[in-house]
Design a protein that fits this description.
The chain is 5% helix and 48% strand. Strand 4 and strand 5 form a beta hairpin. The longest helix is centred in the last third of the chain and has 6 residues. By secondary structure, it is mainly beta.
């Protein structure tokens, strides 16, 4: 079955950086658009970033644009989220997402996500 395993979360001071990874198995990775969502305590899960099959198309939430970068390595079945200039409001559980819909669809709604990872906690202290 499909497995998405996130890693790289942790505690960082405001202004710092983290790099999340998501290793995928049980699927033909190059056939899936991938993305990242996050959920803060008491809030709904929200879109962060998405990437197309080959990696040339990327989409970001306005709140992270210019600070976060999504990328993928199809040879390693892995996607990444480089997070720079982190803010306390970035604190959340970050989830990896896989979809057979388009990356634009992932950016519009989580309903287009077919598979989720278990999440990794990111905490940004002020």
């Amino acid at each position: 079955q499909v497995q998405l395993v996130e890693s790289g979360g942790g505690l960082v001071q405001a202004g710092g950086s983290l790099r999340l990874s998501c290793a995928a198995s049980g699927l033909t990775f190059s056939n899936y658009r991938m993305g990242w969502f996050r959920q803060a305590p008491g809030k709904e899960r929200e879109f962060v970033a998405a990437i197309s099959l080959g990696g040339s198309g990327t989409y970001y939430a306005e709140s992270v644009k210019g600070r976060f970068t999504i990328s993928r390595d199809n040879a390693k079945n892995t996607i990444y989220l480089q997070m720079n200039s982190l803010k306390p409001e970035d604190t959340a559980v970050y989830y990896c997402a896989a979809s057979t819909s388009t990356a634009q669809a992932i950016a519009r709604s989580a309903e287009f996500v077919g598979n989720w990872g278990q999440g990794t906690q990111v905490t940004v202290s002020s």
